[in-house]
Amino acid sequence: MNMENTMRFRVEKDSNSRAQEILKNVYNALVEKGYNPINQIVGYILSGDPTYITSHNDARNLIRQIERDELLEKLVKNYIGLE
Hints:
It is a single chain. By secondary structure, this protein is mainly alpha-helical. It has 4 helices and no strands. It starts with 13 loop residues before the first helix and ends with a helix.
C-alpha cells in the first residue's frame, strides 16, 4: 500500500434518512430504559461494543445496521453544518 495516497470513503445519500431513523429509535429505546442515550451511543461508537446499546425495542440489532464510521461521518457533517 502506498502511504502517500489518500484513501477515499463515501457514504451513499440514500442511507442518510435510514441512519437517522435508526439512531432516533435507538435513542428513544435508551431513554425508555433510563440510560443517558448520548453517553451510551458515544460509548458504542468509540468502542464498537454493542452492549452499550440496550436490546429494548431491538435497538442493539438496529444500530448494528449502520457502520460506525458512517455514524461518525454523519455526526461530523451535522456538527459543522453540512447537513
